Amino acid sequence: MNSRSRWRLAADTSALVLAAATAFPVFWMVLSAFKPKGEVQSLDPKPWTAHPTLESFRQVLSVDGFGRYFVNSLVVALSVVVLSAVVVFLAAVAVTRFRFRFRTTVMVMFLIAQMIPVEALTIPLFFMFRDAGRFAPGVGLNTLASLVLVQLAFSLPFGIWMMRGFVAAVPVSIEEAAQIDGASRTRILWRILLPLVAPGLAATSVFSFIAAWNDFVFAKTFIISATENQTLPSALLVFFKPDENDWGGIMAASTLMTVPVLVFFVAVQRKLVSGLAGAVKD
Amino acid sequence: MSVPTTTAPAAPPSPGSRRGGPAPAAPPGGRRRRTPLLLLLPAAVVLVPLVAYPIYQLGLLSVLDFGQAQASGGAPTSFVGLGNYTRILQDGQFWSVLLQTVGFAAFCVLATLAVGAALAVLLTRVGRWPRLVLTTAATAAWAAPAMTGSTVWSFLFDTNLGLVNHTLVRLGLTGFHEFNWFYDKWTAFLIVGAVVVWHSFPFVMVTLYAGIRAIPEEILEAAALDGANTWTTFRRITAPMLRPILTIVVIQSVIWDFKVFTQIYVMTEGGGIAGQNLVLNVYAYQKAFASSQYGLGAAIGVIMLLVLVIPTVLYIRTLRRTGNDL
Q1: Taking CB atoms and an 8 Å limit, are A247 and B155 in contact across chains?
Q2: CA-based torsion, A181, A185, A188, A190: positive or negative
Q3: Average pLDDT of the residues of chain A
Q4: Which residue has the higher pLDDT, A45 or A279?
């Protein structure tokens, strides 16, 4: 074996070891969720189980109401995705296809909006939604609509920035040709441009889905008394009592929350990487 | 994301990425001029009341005496000018929290970059399968919500049932028997930092790897023909060509790690014993919602915003320098 292939072998091996270390917490979470309670609470933890069981899942879903919270989270995240996609698409077209006054200002403002510590804005937003609830109870505190609205707002700046690249990648000549053929601007927008940027819109949607799905600070702040409107992260926070040692339940609830995003993310991984980091050669 | 967590990673297209042609010249006429504004209208309808107005309100709250009585409408609000700010700046706890926030963010940024860059280089040296396995594992860490990342790492480092203590004792380090990692300020910060790095190194790794792969093969071949060794190639070619991407990754990491909230809030149960693990973001939230001093919380929020303006301006400048027209 020459020194070159020895190096290669060492590199391959360390990549695999590091991959195992990186994935280990996720593995441990899923494993603990499927272990019988007795094994999770054993003082001699083993990295496998001979008796996988759905006991913990059954408990969190039926006794602790995580089924309901799962649905709530899904409703919020999917509403945000749909609304955000429409708004992001229109705004991205505006900033890539048109030159207008204050265009740069608008872009800089979208950028700045991404840097804001959203947790600090919970303070004014809390009072705004409390006051709005007096006039329109449907969007006040304790409603899923309030979560949809704030998540929608915070998903837009990043979405528009990311979507801009995808819109710019569509040659203008396609639209010009359609225009010559007599298609109206509305038709060009929805029938020609939209299908062309759909893959990019899907990638952008993954981020708005994940941000909405993961949010816990707004859910924790806004959903005070209506526990039936809790979402997964805020319910998990209430459930998270390390002293009570119900790690099986905590890990099952965590698994329920992680798996959907994991599947989603891995499925679009390649798209994301090229969308985010520009052209990758292979 | 974690993606990013409430942290969606934002990387602008690198210089080599696809770009459309220049925007078509607008034909004269009012309708054409109104179109972009109409297209931006939905975004404005959402962003003005839900982002711009709350920022204004945050500033307003920060100059009011606004506590529990005012929040419930039981007492009139009164203007206190910079009173909240002077109270905070004279509070010793604020300064220690600020120092902690900066130190913690610096630690996370450096560790994230070191791990991310090392693995990006490693990715260029391995075969197809190990590369796919490592990227997939990193994607799993990236995608795991900050919330569940926090719960599972808390479990791993649990005092009695945690795998880490168990393993360390097995290895003969009996001092770790029932060792409470969250009791001491520094070990608690260390573990929270590890979770933050675990969540954020994949973004750095993937971005830098893409950057390295985007360096044209011919340049590297030419360097090799000219007899440049690995170190010279790195110093004279790879590093300068990666600089724009690296700058963006650094600034992004600074911005994220300065704002860490979920991991601290969940793992140290709201800021640690006697608030020893507070960072600014959690501190502002606790001041407002745990002790009902909304005015003080808002003032801390404003200070955070002002601190974050610095990396944001640097970020915009870098973007413009690297040819991203805004």
Answers
A1: yes
A2: negative
A3: 88
A4: A45
